Amino acid sequence: MTEIEKLSFEDAMRELEATVGKLETGEATLEESIALYERGAALRQHCEKRLREAEERVEKITLSANGQPTGTEPVEGQ
Protein backbone atom coordinates (compact mmCIF):
# COMPACT_ATOMS: atom_id res chain seq x y z
CA MET A 1 0.00 0.00 0.00
CA THR A 2 1.44 3.37 -1.01
CA GLU A 3 1.59 6.43 1.22
CA ILE A 4 -1.31 8.03 -0.66
CA GLU A 5 -3.47 4.90 -0.37
CA LYS A 6 -3.13 5.13 3.42
CA LEU A 7 -4.59 8.66 3.50
CA SER A 8 -8.19 9.23 4.50
CA PHE A 9 -10.36 11.00 1.96
CA GLU A 10 -10.26 14.19 4.03
CA ASP A 11 -6.46 14.17 4.40
CA ALA A 12 -5.96 13.48 0.71
CA MET A 13 -8.36 16.28 -0.21
CA ARG A 14 -6.55 18.77 2.04
CA GLU A 15 -3.22 17.81 0.50
CA LEU A 16 -4.68 18.05 -3.00
CA GLU A 17 -5.99 21.55 -2.27
CA ALA A 18 -2.58 22.59 -0.92
CA THR A 19 -0.87 21.12 -4.00
CA VAL A 20 -3.16 23.01 -6.36
CA GLY A 21 -2.51 26.18 -4.38
CA LYS A 22 1.25 25.76 -4.78
CA LEU A 23 0.85 25.21 -8.53
CA GLU A 24 -1.37 28.27 -8.89
CA THR A 25 1.19 30.61 -7.34
CA GLY A 26 3.60 29.90 -10.20
CA GLU A 27 6.56 30.15 -7.84
CA ALA A 28 7.69 26.54 -8.18
CA THR A 29 10.45 25.58 -10.58
CA LEU A 30 9.57 23.49 -13.60
CA GLU A 31 10.81 20.30 -11.90
CA GLU A 32 8.89 21.12 -8.71
CA SER A 33 5.77 21.87 -10.74
CA ILE A 34 6.00 18.51 -12.51
CA ALA A 35 6.41 16.69 -9.20
CA LEU A 36 3.49 18.62 -7.70
CA TYR A 37 1.33 17.85 -10.73
CA GLU A 38 2.14 14.14 -10.55
CA ARG A 39 1.36 14.01 -6.82
CA GLY A 40 -1.83 15.98 -7.38
CA ALA A 41 -2.96 13.54 -10.06
CA ALA A 42 -2.34 10.60 -7.72
CA LEU A 43 -4.21 12.36 -4.90
CA ARG A 44 -7.16 13.10 -7.20
CA GLN A 45 -7.31 9.49 -8.30
CA HIS A 46 -7.24 8.34 -4.67
CA CYS A 47 -10.06 10.73 -3.72
CA GLU A 48 -12.20 9.54 -6.63
CA LYS A 49 -11.65 5.92 -5.62
CA ARG A 50 -12.61 6.61 -2.00
CA LEU A 51 -15.75 8.44 -3.11
CA ARG A 52 -16.76 5.57 -5.41
CA GLU A 53 -16.30 3.09 -2.57
CA ALA A 54 -18.41 5.22 -0.23
CA GLU A 55 -21.17 5.56 -2.84
CA GLU A 56 -21.25 1.79 -3.33
CA ARG A 57 -21.58 1.24 0.40
CA VAL A 58 -24.45 3.72 0.66
CA GLU A 59 -26.21 2.08 -2.28
CA LYS A 60 -26.00 -1.29 -0.54
CA ILE A 61 -27.70 -0.21 2.71
CA THR A 62 -30.69 -2.46 3.21
CA LEU A 63 -34.00 -1.21 4.56
CA SER A 64 -36.77 -2.98 6.43
CA ALA A 65 -40.40 -2.85 5.30
CA ASN A 66 -40.94 0.33 7.35
CA GLY A 67 -37.92 2.03 5.81
CA GLN A 68 -35.50 1.61 8.72
CA PRO A 69 -31.89 0.63 7.95
CA THR A 70 -31.30 -3.03 8.79
CA GLY A 71 -27.69 -3.39 7.69
CA THR A 72 -25.70 -3.54 4.52
CA GLU A 73 -25.19 -5.99 1.73
CA PRO A 74 -21.66 -6.77 0.57
CA VAL A 75 -20.61 -4.86 -2.49
CA GLU A 76 -20.34 -7.21 -5.46
CA GLY A 77 -16.80 -8.11 -6.35
CA GLN A 78 -15.44 -7.94 -2.82
TrEMBL record:
Entry protein name: Exodeoxyribonuclease 7 small subunit
Short name of any one Pfam family annotated for the protein: Exonuc_VII_S
Q: What GO terms fall under cellular component here?
A: cytosol; exodeoxyribonuclease VII complex
> Per UniProt, which keywords does this protein have?
Cytoplasm, Exonuclease, Hydrolase, Nuclease
**Organismal lineage:** Bacteria, Pseudomonadati, Pseudomonadota, Alphaproteobacteria, Rhodobacterales
> Which PANTHER family does this entry report, sorted A to Z?
EXODEOXYRIBONUCLEASE 7 SMALL SUBUNIT
Query: What EC number(s) are associated with this protein in UniProt?
Result: 3.1.11.6
What subcellular locations does the record give?
Answer: Cytoplasm
Complexes and interactors? Heterooligomer composed of large and small subunits.
Q: What GO molecular function annotation could you give as one example from this UniProt entry?
A: exodeoxyribonuclease VII activity
In terms of NCBIfam families, this protein maps to: PRK00977.1-3 (NF002139), PRK00977.1-4 (NF002140), xseB (TIGR01280)
Catalytically driven reaction(s) = Exonucleolytic cleavage in either 5'- to 3'- or 3'- to 5'-direction to yield nucleoside 5'-phosphates
What role does this protein play? Bidirectionally degrades single-stranded DNA into large acid-insoluble oligonucleotides, which are then degraded further into small acid-soluble oligonucleotides.
Gene Ontology BP annotations = DNA catabolic process
- EC class (word): hydrolase
Q: Which family does it belong to?
A: Belongs to the XseB family.
